[in-house]
């Protein structure tokens, strides 16, 4: 493991993305999103993604000259056509629009079509909660996960994040519909580690513990995970007019990525302060539950991530040797000097 401070990692990450074709402002937004994941212990959605993002630019998947536009807007609903912009850029626009609409109508819904990979979407839900609103965020992509009862990929690992504000740190649920995020398998490959049984299958549809042999991941809780993923596809893709799964399965076509952002304003539905009081009272009641045997503390959604972030601010963010080496290899390609902490 190598350790590096948050600021240095963000600067280095943004420099790599700019060298790879990102506009400087878009690179900084993307670097902030990726490092947020590393800071909270979600290495699967962190800076290990940078070489792939640069590759996606070369393949024309990420459009670094994108001009996102709000194609439709009526009342509390808007649709953003992100034009293939970096995921962090498209989702940030969707978040701001949803917040604006929620401020006017009590709820704001923004469908974001033709975005690209959006990373750890808890990042966007947290931004909404920090503004005193409830955030619901989901994203959709091509088939990556076995549909329960089938032998082949049928749905994606579509994530869902929900954040609720408090007077302190918000509650943040950020989950994949898969047994594991695909990025965790990438992280295991970087670390030279095996993966647990029940995470993924190989090309023959059999479970594997070798991350190099993974063909598709398995759904969380069997039919529940694949069913939830399917319905996120309905909400984030079909509703927005850019179906992904049917395009991939029926037409063998990759239609990209989509997102959906919903902001709910408690102050326009009821009393804002009373709502915050009740969220905190609920949190206190859960924290007061007796821990199970072998458990030190009952944790709320997002609490573990905040604790890891506090520690990593003090001690630095650890990167697996494989991840550090791949980033340094990218830096060498573009004649960028790597941070001392990684070299």
Automatic annotation (TrEMBL):
Keywords: Oxidoreductase
SUPFAM superfamilies: L-sulfolactate dehydrogenase-like (SSF89733)
InterPro entries: Mal/L-sulf/L-lact_DH-like_ah (IPR043144), Mal/L-sulf/L-lact_DH-like_NADP (IPR043143), Mal/L-sulfo/L-lacto_DH-like_sf (IPR036111), Malate/L-lactate_DH-like (IPR003767)
Similarity field: Belongs to the LDH2/MDH2 oxidoreductase family.
Record's protein name: Dehydrogenase
């Amino acid at each position: 493991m190598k350790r590096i401070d948050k600021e240095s990692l963000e600067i280095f990450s943004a420099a790599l993305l700019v060298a790879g074709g990102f506009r400087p402002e878009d690179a900084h937004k993307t670097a902030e999103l990726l490092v947020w994941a590393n800071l909270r212990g979600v290495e699967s959605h962190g800076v290990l993604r940078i070489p792939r993002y640069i590759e996606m630019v070369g393949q024309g998947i990420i459009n670094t000259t994108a001009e996102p536009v709000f194609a439709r807007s009526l009342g509390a609903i808007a649709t953003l056509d992100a034009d293939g912009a970096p995921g962090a850029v498209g989702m940030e626009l969707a978040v701001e629009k949803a917040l604006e609409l929620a401020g006017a109508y009590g709820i704001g819904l923004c469908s974001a079509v033709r975005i690209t990979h959006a990373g750890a979407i808890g990042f966007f839900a947290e931004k909404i909660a920090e503004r005193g609103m409830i955030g619901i965020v989901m994203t959709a992509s091509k088939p990556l996960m076995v549909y329960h009862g089938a032998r082949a990929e049928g749905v994606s690992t579509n994530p869902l994040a929900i954040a609720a504000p408090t007077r302190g740190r918000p509650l943040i649920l950020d989950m994949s519909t898969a047994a594991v995020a695909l990025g965790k398998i990438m992280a295991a490959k970087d670390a030279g580690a095996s993966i647990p049984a029940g995470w993924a299958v190989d090309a023959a549809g059999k479970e594997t513990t070798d991350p190099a042999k993974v063909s598709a991941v398995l759904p969380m809780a069997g039919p529940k995970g694949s069913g939830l993923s399917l319905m996120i596809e309905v909400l984030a893709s079909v509703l927005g007019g850019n179906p992904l799964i049917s395009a991939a399965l029926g037409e063998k076509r990759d239609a990209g990525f989509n997102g959906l952002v919903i902001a709910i304003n408690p102050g326009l539905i009821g009393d804002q302060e009373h709502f915050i009081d009740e969220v905190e009272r609920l949190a206190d009641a859960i924290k007061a539950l007796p821990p199970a045997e072998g458990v030190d503390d009952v944790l709320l959604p997002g609490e573990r991530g905040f604790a890891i972030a506090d520690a990593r601010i003090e001690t630095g963010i650890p990167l697996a040797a494989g991840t550090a080496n791949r980033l340094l290899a990218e830096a060498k390609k573009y004649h960028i000097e790597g941070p001392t902490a990684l070299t």
